[in-house]
Design a protein that fits this description.
The protein contains two helices and five strands. With 190 residues, it is an alpha+beta fold. It has a domain of 130 residues. Strands 1, 2, 3, 4 and 5 form a five-stranded antiparallel sheet that branches.
């Protein structure tokens, strides 16, 4: 039997080393890009979640403060905390808006002093100032009462301010919250 050799080259099937290197490089670039995108999305979600929590913490405290009288109920003209218990920063004893001036807590706590489950990296601060009724951005001296107070609650996370929320209370506000046992609004002028 005779074998005849042909001069045809055999065609190689498969992939070359160059093709392997190029495809590995492309997969690596795509993987790095997708992981970077995932990291950015995760951080954005965390930041958004923290801001939402900060809004809740600020509005909760603003709501509590706005329930208080404009002036001390016994009509003393002192700005800030008046009694010994108030001076120790016990919010349950606060009975007017300016008692909250310069109050701070970390971690946040309820009015009765119950500490929140949030970590100590969260804090809330309150400032109360008399402001000009014609320009609410103009802060007056605390003994210059023109009938308008601005309440600012600032919420911080890890030492960085996430939000500050302002509210205004005036001397002319009507007390629309019924007293216990009274089904009518009190309509007091503080």
């Amino acid at each position: 039997m005779t074998y005849v050799r042909t001069n045809q080259k055999r065609r190689h099937t498969g992939i070359t080393m160059l093709e392997v290197v190029v495809s590995t490089f492309l997969v690596g670039v795509l993987l790095v890009t997708s992981l970077t995108t995932l990291g950015v999305a995760t951080r954005a979600g965390t930041t958004s979640s923290r801001r939402a929590q900060a809004v809740l913490l600020a509005s909760d405290l603003i709501d509590e403060i706005l329930l208080q009288s404009y002036l001390e109920p016994d009509l003393t003209a002192t700005f800030g905390t008046e009694g010994r218990v108030e001076r120790r920063g016990i919010r349950a004893a606060f009975d007017d808006v300016d008692d909250y001036h310069d109050w701070t807590a970390s971690p946040p706590q309820a009015k009765q002093g119950t500490v929140s489950k949030l970590s100590a990296t969260w804090s809330r601060e309150v400032t109360v100032n008399h402001v000009d009724p014609h320009d609410l951005t103009t802060v007056l001296k605390n003994n210059d009462d023109r009938g308008v107070k601005r309440i600012r609650v600032t919420v911080n996370f890890d030492g960085q301010e996430l939000i500050h929320m302002d509210a205004i209370q005036t001397r002319a506000r009507l007390d629309m919250i019924p007293r216990p046992g009274d089904d009518h609004t009190t309509s007091n002028l503080p």
